Amino acid sequence: MFMLFSFLLRKWREFRAGAAAGVEALPGDGAIDFSTAAAGRSDAPRVVDPELPRPSAAARGPAVLLLHQVRFDLLTSLRNPRARFFTFFFPIVLLVVFTGVFGHGHTVVDGVRVSLSRFYVPGILAMSIVVASYANLVISITSLRETGVLKRRRATPVSPVLLVAGQALATVVVALVMGTLLLVIAKIFYGVGMSPAGLAAMAITAAVATLAFACIGYAVSILVGSPDAAQPIVQATMLPLWFISGVFIPTATLSATLRSVGSLFPVEHIAAGLHLASVHTTFSGAISGKDLLALAAWGVAAAIFCAWRFSWLPSTATA
Amino acid sequence: MTLHKRPRTLPGMLTNSFEAPVSRRLARSPSAAGGNDPVISIRGLRKRYGDKEAVRGIDLEVGRGEIFAFLGPNGAGKTTTVEILEGFRQASGGIVEVLGTNPWKAPSGWRERIGLVLQESQAEPGLTVRECLELYAGYYRSPRPVGETLALVDLIEQVDQRATALSGGQRRRLDVALALIGDPELIFLDEPTTGFDPSARRAAWEVIGGLRQLGKTVFLTTHYMEEAERLADRIAVIAAGEIVAEGTPQTLGGRQVGGARITFALPAAATVAELPACLLDRIQEEGGGLVALPSTTVAADLHALSGWELERGLELEDLEVRRPTLEDVYLKLTTDQPRS
């Protein structure tokens, strides 16, 4: 799956190199033709005529600028070995391990008796979305802020809303790709398929949840003082919730107390929403308005906290 | 306010490859070559954090095309002032205008015209040098070409290296390239060479000197007196939230009119009491046979001394006339101030 990404990335580069050499070029290519360097040769890049300015992403409007930001945010996270492991590799390993070890048992989801293989697909999907949005953003935003990268970006004319939106959209893209991948693996290797209505409900739940967890990620990054602290804080906040939110263990087997504690936090709502979508074949049965509302409420609360307290400057900055 | 332009050799880094764009730019905006319209204008700037006043009413003016050095010890209010000028912090009082606009309320168009080299900013993770520049070029409506900007800071060979893999000096040059990519009029350089080895520092100075050739206005903060002396047209020193001195590197703190100090080794055959009578009341014995003479009339004092040694057939060894260095002036200015 990572190979798939490398492949897509390579194709994208080839496309770009071709575009740069041709008449029509993408914004920001500047005056250098990098196709020789991209092909792995050490020849010095050829400087082409600088007299023909090409419109930059900013000059071509906010939509192009947003895509520009998304592209680089995706590039950054794909090249981060930690993000690659936790976002792409880890959820697949867990899906394989859980279905392999426990897949033959059964449980009950919303009154429907299902195999544990079917239970684990939405569970791991929920986990992978939370990792892709919440965990990645807490760690990367804290690090970008403390290393002054956010401050430098903020010093450019680009609007802060666009910077945040770009990051959020990149997160949605990663979650979408990852979710599709998990569903394809579940279908091919474990025969766990979803109904069309279930898939639609899953897509909506996943989209709302990704944005909500992205907001929560931004909000938590405000509370994290140093990049070193980000990883343990992420693990400490996520790990207990996996067990009491129906991700690793069906909530039906938990005590009422643990269930009500779990339902206070957003992880339970994304898991519940996706579980519901995985067992019903009508859209009205597959979509859970209550869980969507809870996720949205968490997202909005986090966004309000961000608007109030978010800083682009390193927290170590002094007078 | 006057502009003090010292004659300067064209840095070796300025090659034909970008002299042409420079002249084009200058032709496009005649005011970039000189003139005295202020790019930065500060009147009575104050900044309070709680009950602590970090900046206590400072006045500054920086003209177009000038390289202005802002010096001060840590905690003197230097970073606060710069961050107010950059629009990151709101002033508590006074008038601040950068490019004719209050930075705190500046529209995004204002940010098209400034570039920042931040001391604490590290490389964009995961991106190559080229990608970093492409990313930032996309933020501006009319950026400089990426290739030209890389040539300017001499990073063409590193173009496909990861930014995080660059050496310290190369990374700082990438920072300068990122500040230049939007083709700004005004560039803030925050301690651009802190932690550099001497050769990397010299290379960075050449790059900064090159900014002058591009007609940029530069607001430089630094800890290094040699850096300010070498690069700046004008210097202001801040201590405990107040400007304690302002001037050219030659005149700062009355350096050009202040006293010099003549020192020499007293010959073994002579005693202090035998020295010319006109100097006796100023003579200070320094130990180790050295004698010091604070002097405001250096020529006359040297004349008296040399006449005395010739007359006696003596030779004054280790004779030295020393004016205070910029560093001496700076240390005196910043330690005389009571710390808040």
Q: Please, could you describe this protein's structure?
A:
The complex is a heterodimer of chains A (319) and B (340). Chain A is mainly alpha-helical and 319 residues long. Helix content of chain A is 70%, strand content 4%. In chain A, the strands form two sheets. Chain A has a two-stranded antiparallel sheet. A two-stranded antiparallel ribbon of chain A has the order 3-4. In chain A, strand 3 (106-109) and strand 4 (112-115) form a beta hairpin. In chain A, helix 5 packs antiparallel against helix 7 and helix 8 runs antiparallel to helix 11 (266-279). By secondary structure, chain B is of the alpha/beta class. Helix content of chain B is 31%, strand content 25%. Chain B contains eleven helices and 13 strands. In chain B, strands 5-6-7-3-8-9 form a six-stranded mixed sheet, sandwiched between helices. Chain B is elongated, with a radius of gyration of 24 Å. At the A-B interface, helix 3 and helix 6 of A face helix 2, helix 3, helix 4 and helix 5 of B.
